[in-house]
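Example S7 (structure tokens).
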């Protein structure tokens, strides 16, 4: 089972979980354009579902733009505390289609968080990333792009303010320790790391 597939089935945050950002607080919310990358051993969906949960707890509508070839498993998102009834989900054929969908959602001004699962062939043309960053800033929203790549590979572009890399997801008894590091942080310059222990599904070996 790949790290991405594993991640889709491991998230189960505690009810009193703290904000994902080590800087903490509402004022330390995500910048306009963020990238969460992961290699095979990483767990990007764990971070992404946590962000959706935090947005919903703040009362901010969230949207998920996914890929038809790699959809997330809704029961696991719900088990992690995500309100599926309040999560808008759009399926896109490719990264360009996902960017167009994000443009429409961001332009509406109705969403505080928009997640784009771009996958391995992730790419955003300069004009697309520029427009998304502008719309997100205009409507005080955050757009998070999920990509499959190694930490050494470049981010989606210069307009990405924060890039976090899901570095590993290793088993600890009946749970999994998921770690992430910030590779790029244009807003504060602080490169942080964090780790969280997540519950795996019953019967996973």
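Recovered sequence:
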């Amino acid at each position: 089972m790949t790290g991405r597939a594993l991640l889709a089935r491991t998230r189960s945050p505690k009810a009193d979980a703290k904000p994902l950002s080590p800087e903490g607080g509402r004022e330390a919310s995500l910048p306009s354009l963020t990238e969460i990358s992961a290699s095979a051993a990483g767990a990007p969906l764990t971070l992404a579902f946590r962000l959706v949960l935090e947005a919903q707890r703040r009362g901010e509508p969230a949207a998920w733009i996914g890929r038809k070839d790699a959809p997330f498993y809704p029961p696991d998102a719900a088990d992690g505390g995500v309100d599926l009834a309040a999560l808008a989900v759009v399926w896109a054929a490719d990264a360009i289609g996902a960017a167009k969908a994000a443009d429409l959602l961001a332009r509406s001004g109705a969403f505080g968080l928009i997640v784009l699962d771009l996958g391995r062939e992730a790419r955003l043309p300069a004009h697309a990333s520029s427009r998304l960053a502008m719309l997100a800033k205009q409507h005080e929203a955050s757009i998070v792009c999920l990509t499959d790549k190694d930490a050494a590979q470049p981010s989606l572009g210069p307009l990405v303010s924060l890039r976090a890399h899901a570095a590993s997801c290793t088993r600890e008894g009946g749970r999994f320790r998921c770690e992430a590091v910030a590779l790029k942080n244009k807003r504060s310059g602080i490169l942080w790391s964090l780790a969280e222990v997540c519950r795996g599904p019953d019967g996973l070996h």
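Notes on this example. The chain is about 25% helix and 30% strand.
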